[in-house]
Amino acid sequence: MKKQIIYALIALLIGTGAQAQIPEQLSLEQAISLSLANNPEIKIQQKQVDLAANEYFAGNAGLVPTISLIGNGSYQSNDTEAVIRTFQDFPPTIAVSDGAAATTTYSAVVQVDYALLGGFSGKYRYQLLNDERDLAFYRQQSVMNRTILTVAELFLEIAKLQSQEELLEKNVAIGEERLSKVKDRLSFGQATGLAVLRAETDLNRDRSSLDRVLVARNNLKRDLNFQIGIDASTDYRVTVAYAPPALLSTESLEQTVLAGNPDIQLSLKGVQVANHQFQLTNASRLPTVNAFANYGYFNQENDLQQLAEIRTVGYTVGIGLRYNIFNGGRTNRKIQSAKMNQEISQFRQQATQDRILADAIKAHHQLALLMGQLEREEQNIATFRESYLRTEERFSQGKAASLDLRDAQNALLNAEVTLSNLKADIMKSSLRLEALKGSILRNE
Question: How does pLDDT run across 39-54, given as a tens digit for each residue?
Answer without folding.
Answer: 989 999 999 999 999 9
